[in-house]
Amino acid sequence: MVAEPHRFPQPQERTLRFFPPSSVGKSSCYSLPLPPGRYYLRIFSVYDNYDSKARTPSFDVSAAATLVLSFRSPWPEPAARYGAYSDLIFPSATQPASDVCFYSLSTDAPVVASIEVAPVHPLAYDGATTGADLVLVNYGRVTCGNSLFGPGFTKDPDAFARVWQADVDFKNNDRTYDAITAGGRKIFGSNQPPNYFPTKLYESAVTTGGDASNEIEYLMPVDTRLSYMVWLHFAEIDAGIGAAGQRVFDVMLAGENVTRIDIFKQVGGFTAFKWTYVVENLTSSTLSVNLVPVVGRPILCGLENYAMVPLEMRTVPSQVAAMKALKESLKIPARMGWNGDPCAPRAWDAWEGVTCHRGDKGLVITQLDLASQGLKGFITDEISHLKDLVSLNLSYNSLTGSLPPGLGQPSLVSLDLSSNEFTGSIPGTIGSSKLQTALLNNNQLDGQVPERLYSIGLHGGVIDLSGNKGLCGVPTLPACALFWEKGGLNKTGKIALGASFGFVLLVILIVVYILCIRRGPYDYDFEFPQDLTSISAISAKWNRYQRAKSVMLAEMEAHSPDGFYTNGSPH
Q1: Rounded CA gap, 342 and 365, in Å?
Q2: Counting beta carbons within 10 angstroms of the beta carbon of residue 277, is it exposed (0 to 12), middle (13 to 18) or buried (19 or more)?
Q3: Closest alpha carbon to 468 in 530, 400, 422
Q4: Which of 506, 564, 568, 570 is the most exposed place for a label (fewest CB within 10 A)?
Q5: Dihedral, CA of residue 3, residue 5, residue 10 and residue 14, to nearest 10
Q6: pLDDT more than 70, % of the chain
Q7: Which region holds residue 363: left if phi is over 0, alpha if psi is between -120 and 50, else beta?
Q8: pLDDT value of residue 82
Q9: How does it sit in the membrane (predicted)?
Q10: How far is residue 259 from each of residues 159, 249, 253, 256, measured CA to CA in Å?
Q11: DSSP classification of residue 354
Q12: In angstroms, what CA-CA distances link 69 with 19, 27, 130, 247, 259?
C-alpha cells in the first residue's frame, strides 16, 4: 500500500508491487498472453515512500525484449509522490506471450502499480512501415486548450485507450496563448481508421495571443541519439475562417522549417486534419515545436511525440521454449531471475549462468554454467533444441534421472555433469566429433560406455568416468557381462533370450499336438487325479478303463467274424 492512499483517485494507483532482487533476482516479468498484433501498453509507477526509506528506486523496463523505459533515482518530486504514467505502442511477435520485465539496478527494488494493455490497429501510426520493427514510446501526448481526458480518467472514449494530457507542462509559458473551442459544432473526419483519433481532441485548440507575429511553441523533453515521430493535430474550428489562405503558418521542428500548412485548403472547416514527421538523430534533450504565422494566427489541437525505439533481436523461439523447459526440470531457484527472454535485451546480461551470441535467425544460447547452484531436478530432453550449445556445466548439484539423448548436440565441445546423482546408461548420442571434454565422474551410471564417447580420450580429449560403479566395457573399467551392454541386454543377449523363448514355445506346441490333436475316438485320458493320495479316485479311473475296453471289444466282434472291422464284405 502507498503511504498516503487518500491522495490517489484511481483504485489501481493505491497499491504497488515491488521486486527485491535478493529474493527474485535481477529481473521480474509479467507474461501477457497476446496474439500477434500491435498493442498500447500503459504502466503506472509510484513510490510514495511505501518502504519508509525516502529513496526512489532505479530500474529499467522492457517490452517485447526491448528496453523501453528507465527510472533513475531521484525521481522528480511529483512523480515520486503522485506516481507517473508511461505508455508505448509495441508489436507482439509470434511468441506464445509477450513479456513486460523490470530490471533492478544495484540493490533497488523495481516498483509497478498497474499494467494496462489495449489492441491497436496494425496500420496505426504509420504501422505499414514501422509496425514490425519499432516500439513507439510516448514522450508527450497532449490536448491543446483542454484538460486531461481518456479512459480511466474521464468518460471520454478513445479506441486505443490513450490518455491525452493537458498541455500546461509542455507549452513555452513565456509566450501568450488563447484557447478556442468548436462551440458545439460537429467535427468531421475524427475517430477514423487506422488511428481513431478521438473527436474530443479536435473540439479545442490554442492559438497565439497578443501580437499577431507571436508563435506557438512547445518544448518536448527527449533523449538524445534517438529519432522521434511527431504527430500534429489540427481542425479549423474558427467559424470566421471560411476560405483557403486565411490561416497559413509554417511548422518548425528542432529549429528546421519542415512544412507550411493551410488547414482549410487541406480539409475545409470543422474537419480533423493530422500531419506527421520524423525527426532523426536528435542531439538535444529538448525537441522544440514551433508554429510560425504566415497569414493570420497559427492554431493547434493536439501534439504527439514518440521515440522510435528499434525492436531488439530476440532469442530464437525454439531455444526460448527449451530454456523455459530447463527452468522447470532443473528447478532453477527464483533468486537466479530466469524470467523473460534468456538473452535480450542486450543492454542487460543474459540469464544468470547463460551466455548468448548472435545467430542467423536471432540470439542463440552457447553456454550454460550452473555448477554448484543447489539444483535438484533432472535434465529434460528439450535441451536438444539448444543446437548452438558449446559448453554445458551442471556439476556439483543433486540432479537425478537418466541422461537424455538430446545431450548429443553436434556443437557441444565441453560437457561437465560430474558430482550429481544421475542413473542409467550413457546414451550413444553423446560424443560428437567436436566434444573435447566429458566429465561424468561421481554419479550412479551403469552399463557399457559408448565407444564414440570413450574415443575422446584416445584423441587427446579429457574424459572422466570414475565413481560410477556400474559402468563397464572400456579400459580402466570392468568388462561387461556376456549378455550385458549399456544398462541392458546387448544384441547377443537378446538373440539368446529370443531363442530360449522360441524353444520353450516349440516344446509347448508339441505337447499340445500330442495330447489334443493326435487323440483318436478310443484314446482315453489316464491322467492321475490331483489328489494322488485318494485310493477311491484311482479305483474309479480303473473301472472306467475296464468298461471302455469291454465296449470296444464288443463293437469289433459285431463287425467282423474274426474280430476285424472292414469297409467291404468279409473276406
Answers
A1: 8
A2: middle
A3: 422
A4: 568
A5: 40
A6: 84
A7: beta
A8: 92
A9: Single-pass membrane protein
A10: 29, 9, 9, 9
A11: E
A12: 17, 14, 19, 39, 31
C-alpha to C-alpha distance for 430 and 451, rounded to whole angstroms: 10
The predicted structure's pLDDT at residue 24: 86
d(CA 171, CA 429): 68
- Cα–Cα distances (Å) from 274 to 126, 236, 302, 394, 402, in that order, read 12, 12, 9, 58, 64
Sheet holding 363-369, edge to edge: 354-358, 363-369, 391-393, 414-416, 437-439, 462-464
Phi, psi angles (nearest 5°) of residue 98:
-105, 135
pLDDT of amino acid 567: 40
DSSP code string of 153-168: TSS---TT---BEEGG
| Residue 47 and residue 111 in contact, taking contact as beta carbons nearer than 8 Å | yes
Contact 256, 292 (CB under 8 A): no
Q: Grid coordinates standing for 536?
A: 477311491
Q: Are strands 66-71 and 84-92 parallel, antiparallel or unpaired?
A: unpaired
β-partners of residue 180 are: 205
Residue 459 burial class via C-beta count within 10 angstroms: exposed 0-12, middle 13-18, buried 19 and up:
exposed
Question: In this structure, is the dihedral angle defined by the CA atoms of residues 540, 541, 542 and 544, taken in order, positive or negative?
Answer: positive
Model confidence at 275: pLDDT above 90: yes
Q: In this structure, what DSSP letter does residue 426 have?
A: P
pLDDT digits (tens, 9 = 90+) for 363-399: 999 999 999 999 999 999 999 999 999 999 999 999 9
Instruction: Name the pLDDT band for 460 (thresholds 50, 70, 90).
Output: confident
Q: Which three-class secondary structure state does DSSP give residue 411? A: coil
Among residues 1, 3, 72, 60, the alpha carbon closest in space to that of 26 is found at: 60
Question: What distances in angstroms separate CA 49 from CA 17, 57, 82, 484, 565, one per listed residue?
Answer: 13, 10, 11, 69, 119
Question: Which residues are within 8 A (CB) of 2 and not within 5 positions of it... i.e. 6 or more apart?
Answer: 8, 13, 14, 15, 16, 46, 48, 50, 113
By CB atoms closer than 10 A (0-12, 13-18, 19+), residue 62 is buried
* DSSP symbols for 25-67: -SEEEEEE---SEEEEEEEEE--TTTTSS-----EEEEETTEE
How far is it, in rounded angstroms, from Cα 259 to Cα 239? 25
Question: What are the residue ranges of helices labelled H in 220-262?
Answer: none
Cα angle value 118/138/69 (rounded, 5°): 95
DSSP 8-state symbol, 515:
I
Q: How is residue 200 written as a grid cell?
A: 474530443
Q: Is the peptide bond before 404 cis (omega within 30 degrees of 0)?
A: no
Grid cell 479305483 is found at: 539
Strand partners for 304:
141, 231
